[in-house]
Design brief:
The protein is about 50% helix and about 10% strand. It is α/β, with parallel strands linked by helices.
């Protein structure tokens, strides 16, 4: 599985801690982690939590990533931004129990975490425990197990609802503020990681025109 990490500007100083915790857990399981930054508060591209949501949608809808780990100070803003786009099911995850339940019940494709609120002593251990509960074993099995069928049915209904209430990703990319879009995709490693992994040529071609403008 291709896992993308995206941090916004207020918590960019913690990128290395978050990345190392995610990599330490996910890579031994056979996953690959791509760090899309921000890498430090001084990065040229300053990502906001709204941009994190936009990037999350671009990566997931183009299949450049299979799962996105993002967040902000409280985790709520990035979660709301991510869920405003089609093809994204993002959960607010604070502790390992949240991670387990989100994986088993909701089986989404993104999580948002708080990197300021409650991020204190031994925070990196909580991160590792969260990622372990999220990525180990098979997801979507339901909890409790006897409710697995109805939970799977509700996940499908939610996906169908989002198909009705959202436009397709290419239309969104064309209609969204183009300066916002260009800033969001101008990060240091975006082009290197995204275009190597993107499986949607139409989205890739459009983003190339935005970057070239």
């Amino acid at each position: 599985m291709k896992i993308a990490l995206i941090n916004e500007n207020s918590q960019a100083a913690k990128n290395e801690v978050i990345f190392n915790a995610l990599k330490a857990v996910a890579e031994p399981m056979g996953h690959t982690v791509y760090n899309y930054g921000m890498y430090s508060p001084e990065d040229k591209t300053q990502l906001t939590y709204v941009m994190n949501g936009l990037l999350t949608a671009i990566l997931l809808n183009s299949k450049a990533a299979d799962f996105v780990v993002t967040g902000c100070g409280t985790g709520m803003g990035a979660m709301l931004a991510a869920n405003s786009f089609p093809g994204v099911q993002c959960g607010l995850v604070i502790d390992p129990t949240d991670a387990f339940l989100f994986g088993q019940i909701n089986d989404g494709n993104a999580i948002s975490m708080p990197y300021a609120k409650g991020f204190g002593w031994a925070a990196e251990l909580n991160l590792q425990d969260v990622y372990r509960k999220l990525f180990e074993g098979e997801r979507g099995l339901g909890y409790p197990r006897e409710r697995a069928a109805i939970m799977a049915k509700n996940r499908g209904i939610l996906s169908q609802v989002k198909e009705v209430t959202h436009q397709d990703m290419l239309t969104i990319l064309k209609n969204i503020d183009q300066d916002l879009l260009k800033t969001a995709i101008s990060g240091e490693k975006f082009q290197e990681y995204f275009f190597a992994n993107c499986q949607d040529a139409v989205i890739a071609d459009y983003l190339k025109t935005v970057l070239a403008a």
